[in-house]
Predict the 3D structure of the following.
Amino acid sequence: MSVEKTNQSWGGRFSEPVDAFVARFTASVDFDKRLYRHDIMGSIAHATMLEQAGVLNTEERDAIIAGLKDIQAEIEAGQFDWRVDLEDVHMNIEARLTDRIGITGKKLHTGRSRNDQVATDIRLWLRDEIDIILGEITRLQQGLLGLAEAEAETVMPGFTHLQTAQPVTFGHHLLAWFEMLSRDYERLVDCRKRTNRMPLGSAALAGTTYPIQREITCHLLGFEAISGNSLDGVSDRDFAIEFCAAASLAMMHLSRFSEELVLWTSAQFRFIDLPDRFCTGSSIMPQKKNPDVPELVRGKSGRVFGALTGLLTLMKGQPLAYNKDNQEDKEPLFDAADTLRDSLRAFADMVPAIKPKREIMREAALRGFSTATDLADYLVRKGLPFRDCHEIVGHAVKYGVDTGKDLAEMSLDELRQFSEQITDDVFAVLTLEGSVNARDHIGGTAPAQVRAAVQRGKELLAGR
Ligand code: ARG
């Protein structure tokens, strides 16, 4: 990156060049150059429209478009000299265009401003990112459905307060993550609609005196609508905040999921194995196999929450319309999108490779009196009020704790000490299978319901 004589396209009213440090301090090219493709796309649409509006002639338009395409090739070949003194991606590309095609290059900026240009570029960029992220969510959800289907009958302890609560099927547990991701998907689809509106034509803040035809650029760029107010168009970044909010929720979900994977792979739980390729070892403790991927995703959630807070703070004090503050929107937004995309990618790759340890999950479910609620429900069916049943089962559990027996391990006589209503049909409800099979309604943990939910999930994904 070279720093040469100071600018530039706005130098006319200045009597001394910008201080070299200030030039670096105010420049954004180091990070906004990644918008180059969308910047060029926007410029090609703008030039096309200017010709149709009679502002450029055909030769000028063609020269501009060919020049922009050559510049894109230069950038992609790594041959573009990004200059900090040219501030940002927009002026770097425009200056290079003029280098290449001469004076006609200077006509490209007719009827627009960097203010509507950058607002357009970020929206185009974010729209693409959202599409990639949606694809990764779907891939992860496919993995969850596959695993849930295979584990529809696998019983594990379900927890509340991280204490054994009731048996659930592992498939059912996995589908809880599927549901959360479905809502994340919906939120991003919704955010995409508001991202996909075109500010181009707002110019600096008030619109432009040229006979621009915004419907043309809107159509060429595939926007769904044209922004209805030029002041709002150049200054608002609520779509970026909305994206970071949706991304934060998705990362929060992935972080919770990570926490479970970390717990489940620990020697204390041993519910699952993660393949070695998603883990690393320790340089000092030879036995270690650390679940780095989920740990990192859990840690990275903080970056995205930070981006959300950063962008809200960035916007809250700004008067209309564009302010240079807005240049600070990019790094948090880029980082949030990169982090979410990479985290989803890692999870989508990793989830189908999770190896459940069915026997260990089952043993864990047999401990901790996980079928105590089933015994209470059984007594309710025998005609007792639920509160009394709760009390009776409480006594039975206390006896179990003292004698080291789970409910299903007690004899009928032992159980009958607590209620005469208990007969030998009780053992059917005290088994793990009896417990999960009994929760047989939409959203319940019964294997049959897991299979039905997997089916609904497959249909949902097929409709995307
Ligand atoms: N680099 C600037 C940004 O990211 C582009 C817009 C600059 N506009 C201006 N009037 N200085 O926001």
The first strand starts at residue 155 and ends at 160. The radius of gyration is 30 Å.
